[in-house]
Amino acid sequence: MLTALRHLLAILILPFTVVVIVPRWLLTAWAPRDSRWLAGSATEFIGRTAGAMVFLAGFALFVWCVSLFVRVGRGTLAPWDPTQQLVAVGPYRHVRNPMISAVVTMLAGEALLFGSRVVAEWALLFVGFNHLYFLLSEEPGLQQRFGASYVRYKAAVPRWVPRWHPYTGD
To answer: What is the spatial distance between Cα 11 and Cα 94, in angstroms, rounded to a whole number?
Structure first.
């Protein structure tokens, strides 16, 4: 029970804020200056359909990543309650940060769904912030916690652009 609450708290504070609360605020606060699909147009139908599909793909990847953090890493996605084991399975065999990729994919889906330039800009800002965070804090912390195994993993698996062949730990 306590473990489930730890994960729920981490999800509510971090990705829920990024994917639900901030975009909702942006869509409301910036509505007069934001873009939207032309109501009833074919572009609206295509954009909304594509947006929903992109969002669901990101959500599926996010759920997969969280489940790996629980089962393999024995920790949460939150920096204050990190994994106890290095997670280098599933999508982590192709790219080091698939959870961030999942969140960005959900944001891109929302931008398409609403036809919102402001949400797209938020997605780009989120990528930039995370890139700096990973360079300055996350990666040095992982190297300190997991040592040589993380150094090998980091050398073999790209940060953002997935590798074609999965990492096998060699």
So the answer is: 23
Please check whether residue 138 lies inside any domain of the structure. Answer: yes
Residue 75, domain CATH: 1.20.120
- Going by C-alpha positions, the residue among 73, 66, 71, 70 that lies closest to residue 87 is 73
The answer as to whether 74 is a domain residue is yes
Instruction: Report d(CA 74, CA 60) in Å as an integer.
Output: 20
53-78, pLDDT tens digit by residue?
999 999 999 999 988 988 888 877 77
Is the CB of residue 159 less than 8 Å from the CB of residue 134?
yes
3-class DSSP state of 21: helix
User: Total structural domains in the chain?
Assistant: 1
Task: Evaluate whether residue 164 is within a structural domain.
Answer: no
Q: 39-69 b/e with 16+ CB inside 10 Å = b?
A: eeeeeeeebeeebeebbeebbebbebbbebb
